Amino acid sequence: MSKVRLGILGIGGMGSGHCRNLLADPDCELTLAAVCDIKESRRQWAKENLPESVLIFDNADDMIASDAIDAVLVAVPHYDHPKYVIQALQHGKHVMSEKPAGVYTKQVREAIAEAEKHPDLVYGLMFNQRTNHVYRAMHDLVQGGQYGAMKRVNWIITDWFRTQAYYNSGGWRATWSGEGGGVLLNQCPHQLDLLQWICGLPVKVDAHLSFGKWHDIEVEDDVTAFMEFENGATGVFVTTTGSYPGTNRFEVELDRAKVVVENNELYVYELDQPVSEVLANSNQGFARIPGHEVKVETDGKNPQHMGVLAAFAARILRGEPLVAEGPEGIRGLTLSNAMHLSAWLGHAVEIPFDEDLYYDELMKRVATSRVKENVAEVTFNTDGSYGSEKK
Ligand SMILES: NC(=O)c1ccc[n+]([C@@H]2O[C@H](COP(=O)([O-])OP(=O)(O)OC[C@H]3O[C@@H](n4cnc5c(N)ncnc54)[C@H](O)[C@@H]3O)[C@@H](O)[C@H]2O)c1
What we know:
Helix 4 packs parallel to helix 5 (105-116), helix 6 (133-144) runs parallel beside helix 8 (189-199) and helix 8 (189-199) crosses helix 11 (329-345). By secondary structure, this protein is an alpha/beta fold. It contains twelve helices and 15 strands. The strands form two sheets. A nine-stranded mixed β-sheet has the order 14-13-12-11-7-10-9-8-15. Strand 4 (71-74), helix 4 (81-90) and strand 5 form a beta-alpha-beta unit. The chain folds into two domains: 4-127 and 303-322, NAD(P)-binding Rossmann-like Domain (Rossmann fold), CATH 3.40.50; 130-301 and 332-367, 2-Layer Sandwich (Dihydrodipicolinate Reductase, domain 2). Residues 9-15, 36-39, 42, 60, 75-78, 80, 98-99, 126, 128, 170, 186, 379, 382, 386 line the site of nicotinamide-adenine-dinucleotide (NAD).
């Protein structure tokens, strides 16, 4: 196999973005071989915009079973991600799932179990923000251990502004039955993944969520969550789709440094002595700790979605590392589910939490979910929608 033949399942906003990206990069080791959408209007878009060689399917079963593809990119709404990951693997296809890995952890466990039965097939997650050099460098600095223990983790990510028109653009959006959550499940899977990748998973969360605070929607559009980590470090995660311009500042405080990513820049302030040492041993009540800003050399690369897809092809063809292994997707989702559960129950939740209870609580909301009527389905171009750290 010299190139991997890819079939994209769902060519709405993101799926069509993937099509455009692939067609714009003839060197990519993935060839766009097929697309599939249940909507006639999207298939019409494919006819008008994609090369004639690209097969157009109107149902997932036929595309996934087709000999014309080696791999599937799942870009349909979230609830169906695990289902199509499983189906692709069962048909001998490599699979890349859009984020989130699923809506609830129990369904993602089924996808992981299926992947374990097919060690010869590749299962990856579209965590494109992991390709950003600033987060890769932050990961290495925090995980490398040279700055000692983590003390505090604060992420204010309030620059996900979305209008009511965005939520009205699809019947599935911002409903318990169609989407299964709001800003935590649609916009923040990237940040929750990066947070767990860089800092590890918290062991406890106490989250305050507001449902439909800024928009006429039933799911959360405003979140303030307290987190506690295994070593006692604490932190907050704050997000919303109702603020503008908002902030995107991720700060990790360690015993010997403060590491911050803001405005797509990495800033490291290194202390000459550990805080714990000065705090315990200094004889000055108002001691100051000398330190200096460190220039961190990064490779400056931020290939985003195409970086994830290039790595996917390289894994299939040559066994090279993925940007994110499929089974890792459950970690950020665990954090997201724990935040929902905490808000629903009105108290702190420990991780791991009771996944059956989460599912039951979610289904209670699904049962009373409003069906959106008279939705004028619109496919927005998602370019530039990935937050301030795409560029
Ligand atoms: N990685 C990123 O940066 C990023 C950005 C945007 C969206 N996404 C993810 O992509 C997914 C899709 O989001 P979107 O904004 O493109 O939504 P969308 O509604 O614009 O597109 C989804 C498309 O899937 C089609 N579809 C639904 N069920 C199908 C099925 N069973 N078979 C075939 N087609 C089906 C719909 O008709 C629609 O055209 C979501 O899970 C979202 O989280 C990821």
